[in-house]
Amino acid sequence: MTDPRPYSLQRRLLISMAVGFSVLLLIISWLLWTYARTAANRTYDLLLAGATLSVLERVTFDANAPTVDLPQTAMDILSLAPEDRIVYRIFAPEHGEITGTPDLPLPDGLTLSTEMQFYTADLSEPFRFAVQGRQMTSPTGRDWVIVQVGQTLRARNEQQMSLFLYGIGWLAGVSLLGLLFVWLAIRASLHPLRAIEGALANRSASDLSPLSGTPPHEIAGLFEAINTFIAQLARSRKLSEQFIADVAHQTRTALSALRGQLDLGQDAASDAALRDRLSRARKQTDATVHMTNQLLANAMVSHRSESNRLMPLDLRLLVRNTLADLLRERRMRDVSLSFDDQTAPEDAIRINGDEVSIREALRNLIDNAVRHGGAANTIAVRLMREDQDVVLVVSDAGPGIAPEHRAAATERFRSLDPVTAGSGLGLAIVRQVIEGHDGKMQLGTSRLGGLRIALFFPRLLALLLAFAALPSLTRAEELVIHAAADPQAMRPLIAAFLDQYPEQLPQPTITYVDYQTVDLYNDMLDDSVPVPDVVISSAMDFQVDLVNRGMARRLNLLTAILPPDWARWRSELFGFTFEPAAVLYNTNTLSAGDLPRSHRDLSSYIRDNEAALDGRIGGYDLRRSGIGYLFATQDTIQSVQAQRLMETLGRAAMRPYETTALMAEAVAKGEIVLALNVIGSYAMARNAAKPAIGVHFFDDYNLVMTRSVFVPKDAANPEMGEAFVAFLLSDDGQRTIQESTPLIAIRPPADAEATPALHASRSDTSFLPIRLGAGLLTFLDGIKREGFLRNWESTLRQTNAP
């Protein structure tokens, strides 16, 4: 029994909204509390980080032990939270405590790392700590120094509570005001529904005209659904009325004829006359049954056509199954029925169709052929492809249909031959089925002399390709690459990228412009130079600066192909090679066993062999080589011997070169016998090609740079640029780098061919990757850069002065 009291939609909406507001308020309160805690931690963690970094920068080695000149700025930074206590500690695992509060708690599982770590621990009261290490070159090798700074949580707890209370107060007030507006909005919004209710309640049962008016956008779908339903009712009523009229007329005629035969049989004067009348009555009964089946089939096809039940199906399989069912029927015993499948076996003959309707259409075509061609008829069914259609052809050896009568043969209740006349619905049903599938039907004369009927169904694949053929795919694209990289090394990568380009798309044109690193950087800053689609450079600091200026496009790449953390920045800049700095030497002049093992030893080695090495050492021209400047500045961070080494190189009259290739050629010819900080991948390639060139790595540290790539934000073809970057980082791209170029892949696939030299030493701690990030901007500051270069040039001039 139904509830006689209807519920209030308005009240339900208001209660639902109130409950929703309450739940949302609780969720937002929790999120707000979490956000307040995170914001407070982030704010005061920045103070800890700033203090830690400022202390870490002042750590040096004095004689044989580390020392620190504690900066005033570190304490000033921490004093921005005046209510908090402060503790700090500086120590070295190899040398013990340096200064500060000893034995402060460390995080569980602490590993020596240059990454800053934050954690909370109890020390009379809760403290928040920041800890970071730095690996420095000491007289005895590479030593770690750890800086640990902590402060209490009072200031951050107060900020967290303040942020939370401020936010929750405003949120509560807005929620109450929102509920009031929701109540008013619900009342106003339900008015159009009342109007629709009145319009439907006041119309008669026979009125199936659509609702008129312009409904609000929010209930336009309901309004349209009601009108669609009314239209369907109107069509269904029309079909029902037509079906009833057809059944009434055809059944009345058939039953009248049947009754006439039976009346005549009743009046028959002999048994022979009675049998004749009964035989006629049976034929009339068969015709009536056939006509009834055809009427029902016609109604079924009309209904399914209206309900749009098309689904993907395999037409080949459907035809085969239908013919197999027909051959089991008694009336087909004397019929010669064949099926010729002219489509390729591997083709998927799929269409959007209604299986029941198509099966009924095929059965009607076979029935017509049997009825009009006789029991010994020959019927050939053929399936073939024609352009973007699938064609089903049924041919027979019957009398056929004259061309002038073919149009009339597909009309309802039209029988052209009174001898074999049926219901006149067979071809009309077939026509209705094919029209419901957006196809066409053709009537003609078959090779057997009878009727040939071809049904054309659009292929599903053709429909899909029509949507896929977008305008952007109809023309070849151009990919413009500006790169500070050896074109010989990049050529296999570009060829491999083109090999993987989809075959159905036009092959793109690749425009590759070769640069020196400094020139590429300057051109990217020059508004008059056209913007490329891809920028590649070995000068990591220049690349970071360009990205930091907002010139790069954010790329959404698969996690599986991303390089290590140190070789990517902001989802905009990505490293794709692993290239350590190396020393080249002339094997005809120098012996590998005599070469220095560390940067500290290098200065002594040059001084001890001053006569033999004078004017025969090569290095980068720091003003012309971005990678040379990067290695030189990073050396000053890693080694306390950098300035001493620079002075030693000046006294030895070091020759400046712009590229690794020029230095390698000079070493091979004997013009110089040592080349410092050359790109390791090129060095090993030269070593393999020319035995006179040897490659040497230090034991203390070897800087590792990565060749990086980004897609400019204003690129003309950014999608293809992103595809190229994705290829460089993919397994196929990394395999190509490893196997077909002198470069070293940053993430070589496990099945890639191993390269000589390095690749067992990847995990060796002497290889120190340079991290992509804002830290590389330090030495790009105008004043700092110019001061560094002037000091370099001054050192070389003074030490070379007579």
Kindly list the characteristics that best describe this protein.
six-stranded mixed β-sheet, phosphoprotein, 23 helices, membrane, alpha+beta, elongated, Heat Shock Protein 90, Beta-Lactamase, 27 strands
CATH class division of the largest domain: Alpha Beta
Distance between the termini: 115 Å
CATH superfamily of the largest domain: Histidine kinase-like ATPase, C-terminal domain
Quote the CATH topology of the largest domain: Heat Shock Protein 90
Helix content: 40-55%
Overall body shape: elongated
Which structural class do you get from the secondary structure elements? alpha+beta
Whole-number average pLDDT? 78
Q: Architecture of the largest domain, according to CATH?
A: 2-Layer Sandwich
Parts with pLDDT < 50 across at least 5 consecutive residues = 418-424, 461-475, 756-763
* Rounded Rg: 44 Å
Number of helices: 23
Major sheet size, sense and barrel closure? 7 strands, mixed
Secondary structure tally: strands: 27
**Number of domain units:** 5
- The amount of beta strand, in percent, is 15-25%
